């Protein structure tokens, strides 16, 4: 569902990657109690390491905010899809 929502929002399906390990995301306990997804949406040019000043600076750009809004929309649309799915 999440991938379909990304495509609906204009992301090319060939640009969507799954299964890449991004380290600890503190979501493990949630997975034990309910379905969850750990989405990562590109908000920078892609070469920056997380938790660095370079990443912080890139995350404050208009491109980054567009990526954040896209991710929020995809998550909201996916939550809606889950709630109306009676299967």
- Classify the beta-strand content into a percent band: under 5%
Radius of gyration of CA atoms, rounded to a whole number = 14 Å
**Biggest β-sheet description:** none
The average pLDDT value, as a whole number, equals: 86
Number of strands: 0
Helix count from the secondary structure assignment: 4
Q: What class, by secondary structure content?
A: mainly alpha
Instruction: Return the string of H and E elements.
Output: HHHH
> Distance N terminus to C terminus?
13 Å
Low-confidence region ranges: none
Helix content: 40-55%
What is the approximate shape?
globular
Overview in brief:
With 87 residues, the protein is mainly alpha-helical. It contains 4 helices and no strands.
Task: Provide structural commentary.
The protein contains four helices and no strands. The chain has 87 residues and is mostly helical. The protein has a domain at 1-12 and 41-87.
What characteristics describe this protein?
87 residues, mainly alpha, 46% helix, globular
Give the topology, please.
Elements: H1 2-8, H2 28-31, H3 53-58, H4 62-84
Helix pairs in contact: 1-4
